[in-house]
Amino acid sequence: MDWVERMNKAIGYIEDHMTDAMDYEAVAKIACCSVYHFQRMFSFIADVSLSEYVRRRRLTLAAFELQNSPIKVIDLALKYGYESPEAFTRAFQNLHGTTPTAARSTGIKLKAYPRMSFQISIKGAAELNYRIEELKAFSIVGLQERVSTNIVSTIIPDLWANAAKDGLFERLWEIRAVDHPMRGILGACADGDWGKNEEFHYIMSIVSQQSPPEQMIRRDFPGATWAVFEAEGGPEGIGEIWERLYTEWLPTSGYDLAYLPAIECYLPPAENNNELWVPVVKKGDKQEGL
User: What is the reported pLDDT for 95?
Assistant: First the structure.
């Protein structure tokens, strides 16, 4: 239950700081993972983004205050982090379908989003194929793009489509490290400032010992332990594995996520499957953040 306890403590921190500038790094630290992983984990489990959860909860609490106190709208807007009463009113109306002033009246319909809590849910017995790999330090070389976590599902497929048209994958294949276990075209989710601006770097890449060609970058990885999950089909299969990693494997595996980028590995079509490489540490082991 350690994982469940940490997630609920992270929610507790969020709830205790609803009227403060939200420190997502502190939240992720409580959950023992990077901000990027916490945001993805939260979205997969809750089916809503972390930022949207915070927005809904703040506007829920604001509605309660409007109906139960004489607080002014301008003071309420500032309390919940809005720069102006106008911005607060727009957000409030988008969620509740009415203005803050009208919300004080009896008979007005409002929406309430309750505090979230986590628990382990017993699901079906579908197998999840994985292995643990110990890798020495290695480097990837590829094309790096800045991506907002709010548009991941739409922008990344476009990045891959454009890369295919431009012949990126053929160029990467020519410089690959032939004998490395991570042997496909890679999609690495990486950034030392994970979560600060709700953005990260996505690198379409290959494991390589060569210097990066023009317009490409090189990123070095230290030696680490990796959990490697088999995913059938294309990107949809990888997406399913991400969800099962967070909701099924991680809570009971004896491992925590390490402070290193995770990597989606797309193997040659003849192999009929792909892989998700996730850096992990055994629970209780100390690790340094990026």
Answer: 93
Q: What value does the mean pLDDT take over residues 46-53?
A: 87
- The whole-angstrom distance between residue 269's C-alpha and the CA centroid of its chain comes to 27
- Under a CB-based contact definition with an 8 Å cutoff, are residues 30 and 20 in contact? no
CA distance 113 to 41: 20
Tally Cβ neighbours within 10 Å of residue 262. Answer: 23
Give the list of residues 6+ apart from residue 265 with CB closer than 8 angstroms, or none. 182, 183, 184, 185, 186, 274, 275, 276, 277
Name the strand (E) or helix (H) holding 200: strand 199-207
pLDDT of residue 252: 77
Angle at 38 between CA 34 and CA 42, to 5 degrees: 175
Tokens of 231: 């995913």
Distance of CA 245 to the CA centre of its chain: 12
> What's the chain's length in residues?
290
CA gap 35, 236 in Å, rounded: 24
- Show the domains of the chain with their CATH numbers: 2-104 (1.10.10.60), 130-282 (3.20.80.10)
pTM of the entire structure? 0.70
- Nearest Cα neighbor of 150 from 273, 55, 233, 58 is 55
Distance CA 33, CA 153 (A): 22
CA-CA distance, 71 to 278, in Å (whole number)? Answer: 48
List the beta bridge partners of residue 228.
Answer: 131, 277
Contact 274, 231 (CB under 8 A): yes
Q: How many CA atoms lie within 13 A of 289 on its CB side?
A: 14
- Specify the range with the lowest mean pLDDT, choosing from 47-56, 184-193, 261-270: 184-193
Cα gap 165→15, rounded to integer Å: 46
The closest alpha carbon to 85, from 70, 72, 104, belongs to: 72
The predicted-structure confidence for 180-217, as pLDDT tens digits, reads as follows 999 899 998 876 444 445 677 889 999 999 999 999 99
